[in-house]
Amino acid sequence: GIYSTLDIYPNMQFYLSEVRSDNMYAVTQTGVRPYEQINNFDVTLATNEQVSDNWNNNFRGIFRANTVLDQLNANANAVEDETTRNRMEGEAKFLRAFFYFDLVRYYGRVPLMDRVYTPEETLDLGRSPVADVYDLILSDLQDAITLLPATYPGSQEGKATSWSAKAMLGLVYLTRSGPTY
Question: Which of 74, 104, 135, 136 ranks highest by number of CB atoms within 10 Å?
Fold first, then answer.
């Protein structure tokens, strides 16, 4: 379920990064496409459907990752095979880090949720400092490196591995020197 939230990720990367770059000139004759607001750096991007879809989808992935992690902790004996349990925890932490990394690069300060929150609890959540978000990302990736296998058999290719966690950790270290607002 966590992986399925990645289905719109390529489109969101295109709309929120390439459209804003010099690689694209994303303007139509009618001027009504949602990505045109992004292309023009409009100040009303908070109401843009692609910006809100990216925000919502990343938090959907975080919620699903937190659900898996909470259930693994609450039902320690539910997965009898230690290797499978470690892999599930590692994949959930890798993906949670992935989603937070996407969020912190686009939005800076974001609500930090390291467990499943009730709807009432979320009402009191504010945006956390960027440094705190990066701390969770780094911790999750370091855990994922130790929990995930280096490879999978051919039928399971495409899942997070310790190498993907290491590569992402390197990218995080290169990126986190940015704004700290």
Answer: 104
